[in-house]
Amino acid sequence: MTTGTLTFFCGKMGAGKTTLSRSIARERKAVLISEDEWLAALYPDCIRTLDDYRRYSALLKPPLKRVIQSILAAGTDVVLDFPANTVAQRHWFRSIFLEIAAPHTLVVIEQPDSVCLERIARRRSEQPERAATDTVAMFEAVTRLFVAPTPDEGFDCVWQ
């Protein structure tokens, strides 16, 4: 039996990961799993800082990993709207597909900071519930941690 393909994204906050993940999931008729949606549903109003995000994201990933692997093993593609913006984050994605020998694609979205900041400002006005976290200060804090993937990491990358 052939496994589904795992698609995930690397790009700065506001680069367009969510928009592209939705588009790819529709095109491929894939299961889309959004970290933001799961965090908001399971931990409403709990994420105000980068440390909050790290804590709750770490709680979410182990049970979701098993679900994602089950979907892939059933032959269905999965698109993960989760950031793969650091080496440590990418390690989690690698464990998902390697453990079940599933193919993968890491989509790397490159956008200048100015575009990302414009999108974040627009998102704040369109989604007031995100106003506390979609800030210039949060963008700067997250961007300081950003590490683009390198060839030696061994991912099948598509650059956008």
Give the structure's gist in a few sentences.
The protein is built from six helices and five strands.
Question: How would you describe this structure in keywords?
Answer:
Rossmann fold; alpha/beta; 160 residues; single chain
Polypeptide structure, described:
A five-stranded parallel sheet has the order 2-3-1-4-5, sandwiched between helices. The protein has six helices and five strands. It has helices at residues 17-28, 35-42, 50-73, 87-99, 113-126, 136-145, and strands at 6-10, 31-34, 78-83, 104-108, 157-159. It has one domain (6-159): P-loop containing nucleotide triphosphate hydrolases (Rossmann fold, 3-Layer(aba) Sandwich). Helix 3 (50-73) packs parallel to helix 4.
What layout of secondary structure does this protein have?
Layout: E1 6-10, H1 17-28, E2 31-34, H2 35-42, H3 50-73, E3 78-83, H4 87-99, E4 104-108, H5 113-126, H6 136-145, E5 157-159
Parallel strand pairs: 1-3, 1-4, 2-3, 4-5
Helix pairs in contact: 3-4
